Amino acid sequence: MDMRIIKNRFFQYFAIILIFGIWIVCFDDYKWSKQDALNTQLHALQQELQETQKMITEYESKNKLIETDPELMEATGRDNYYMKRGDEDLFIFVKEDEDGSLILLE
Known about the structure:
It is a single chain. This protein is mainly α. The chain folds into 2 domains: about 1-30; about 40-105, no CATH class. The protein has 3 helices and 2 strands, in the order αααββ. The chain has a two-stranded antiparallel sheet with strand order 1-2. Strand 1 and strand 2 form a beta hairpin. Helix 2 (about 30-70) crosses helix 3 (about 70-80). The chain is elongated, with a radius of gyration of 33 Å. It starts with a helix and ends with a strand.
């Protein structure tokens, strides 16, 4: 083959590959910047999912403890839901904020 034909073919292939590369990087729906943003978002969502699953297992174990221990059930009801026995009085202290909203004092 003639060297001119080989060089011509080489430059044709090189130009096509270069145009294809520029198209993929800059204009296509799968461009690198978009893929990088999607991968970052995917990683953040996977971490959030792991944290949520960890919280779910913690709350399930706390729920089992509360269901099986009557003293813990009573303490939880008193602390979180302001429950009381029939012969008791319950006093809740609140403080008024600058904007008029009430703040519970613990």
